[in-house]
Amino acid sequence: MKQTDIFISGGGVAGLTAAAAFGAAGFSVLIADPMPPITDEETDGADLRTTAFLQPARDFLIAAGLWDRLSPFAAPLQIMRIVDAGGETPEPRVTKDFDAADLGDLPFGWNLSNWLLRREMVARLEELPNVEFRTGVGFASMLTRTNEARVTLTDGTRISTKLVIGADGRNSPVRQAAGIAVKTNRLGQKAVTFAVAHEAPHDNVSTEVHRTGGPFTLVPLPDHEGKPCSAVVWMEDGPEAARLAALPVDEFNAEATLRSAGVFGPLTLASRRMVWPIISQIADSLNSERVALVAEAAHVVPPIGAQGLNMSLADMASLLDLAQANPNGLGNADMLKKYHRARHTDITLRVKGVDLLNRASQAENPLLRDLRAKGVEALYGLAPLRKTLMKMGLGAKG
């Protein structure tokens, strides 16, 4: 039976980050995922979405030995721009800029492609002698006791560990094996994700355009073939998202440009299109005996305000702090109860908050759209409130 301090189920961005962080802190880690990570954007199945790491994530990534690898590829997010285009025609009628300079010298965050994150994170794990990454094999079952967990993998490997971290997604096998229930809200939406080139520079501005169906978000990327480039998340009702994803390229470019309210001029597709279901979900508990849930195993939110992965990194930072504070108590009941108490309330509030923002962005009734536009203006007009909201978006609790 193989011995390790920590077993991590899930080799996505969250699981790889957790493995690097705990490995860099000196814990022995075994991480497993049924699928080998795709680390090239041209490979079928590559995750073409992007992830924005907000300010608080940087220190965590530095400690994990990841930031120096990632920073050369990162596009800074200096301004978060909210555009309301909910009038009779899809044109900007309210535009408000939330500038990170109001809070300090750093940008709000940095945007990177998910396939590239995987490439650099896998390379980092290879540098850590106390971390073993097994691909093509996943979590099968576990038996927990007060002093250890025994995990069996799909290839029959048996592992004895002090802590099992479920970082294996919204349908987490670890969560199911631990008997932890979830509350799921299916929103009837899907997100079409893709990259676009455009003539106007993005100037490191992340732009959310609100009309109906959900936000149309353009997030800065490095230039593509000499042109400014942005990652796009276009949220719509499910049938409309499917229709958009199937359009011929020229027609899709025209509809995307129209939906963007022309903020960067004509948009030209610069990647494949992918469609992702949008749900809101939260686990009833973040822990059970010898088990901690992080990331989408614990919570799922619509892709608004870059909250998803940054909530996940807050999970990992909290768990790592507790582990380092008492290494001899790694994975025990006291540690895991403290983890749940430290994170569950904040997660619940953020899931509800993002859900409310999403519902406001879905509004089709012109009166509700007018109310939304006035709300944006009112919030922006009160400087202390504006700064408080920006700090909360970065992860502060008030």
TrEMBL record:
Pfam families: FAD_binding_3
Identification of the protein by name: 2-octaprenylphenol hydroxylase
Upper taxonomic lineage: Bacteria, Pseudomonadati, Pseudomonadota, Alphaproteobacteria, Rhodobacterales
Annotated EC: 1.14.13.-
InterPro entries (UniProt xref): FAD-bd, FAD/NAD-bd_sf, UbiH/COQ6, UbiH/COQ6_monooxygenase
MF terms (GO), sorted A to Z: FAD binding; monooxygenase activity; oxidoreductase activity, acting on paired donors, with incorporation or reduction of molecular oxygen
Cofactor(s) needed for function: FAD
Annotated TM spans: none
Similarity comment text for this entry: Belongs to the UbiH/COQ6 family.
FAD-binding domain boundaries: 4-345
GO biological process: ubiquinone biosynthetic process
Keyword Methyltransferase in annotation: no
Gene3D superfamilies: FAD/NAD(P)-binding domain (3.50.50.60)
UniProt xrefs under SUPFAM superfamilies: FAD/NAD(P)-binding domain
Keywords associated with the record: FAD, Flavoprotein, Monooxygenase, Oxidoreductase
Pathway connected to this protein: Cofactor biosynthesis; ubiquinone biosynthesis
